[in-house]
Known about the structure:
This protein has 276 residues and is mainly alpha-helical.
Amino acid sequence: MKNLIHTELFKIFRQRKTYYAIAAVFVLEAFIMVSAFFQGREFLDVFLENLRETFEFQGNLLNGNLIIYLVLNSFWFHIPLILMIVVSGFLTGEYKDRTVEAILLQPVSKRNYIISKYIAAVVFTAFILGILIVSTFLLSYLFFGRGDLVVFLEGLSFYNGTEAFYRLLIAFLIGSLTMFFYAVVSITLAVLFQEATVTWIVAALFLIGTTLMLRFEFESAWVNGLFFPKLTDSWQYVFFSEIPYGKIINKSVVLIGYTGLFAWIGIRVFQKRDIS
């Protein structure tokens, strides 16, 4: 198993798509920062226009912490989409090249082979997220400086620079669980559909559907707590004035359970399917 994982990671970092994903992360960051530089102050003026009649704001609210928060919001769609397209290609590419058949002619079990794919997907996702987190903090503070963070979630909240830094870092770590979930789902979709284009389309539809269903509200709190689309927003709770740690932990545990379930489905289907 260890050799399989090493081989998978070696293949990942030899592929161009890996570096396309890294480039996409930097392009996304650059787009957010450039947009904030040219339009951010105008947006803040409109956003806080009514409040300026009651409160006096000091300091620069268009600062690095706000930029980091804007990048964090890419966890809703952009980062998951990049990950699902790239990660699913780890398997669909080998289906297309018939590499899967060649590998399984060796003394390699189907179970170990597909598990190594899931592990490699998680490691790759952690690598991309590490680059995203480090570069976002460094570039945001370098070009926009530090300052207070203003967030509108169930009301307007302000956090000083130090508290904002820790809340943003925690939010990134919690949000990473959602990214791991999407990475695992993408491998499972690749197992189910095999063909790259079909897998990408289904992955995009899955992501869009999950985002839309986040707004669904059921009468039962128990159902809401188990409905997986509603588990992908845990990182937002970090920006409530009183952080509901219990709710975040419950959602995170259930999401980890769903991640394991999707992996189990993919492993079972791959084991039972004839590779030909």
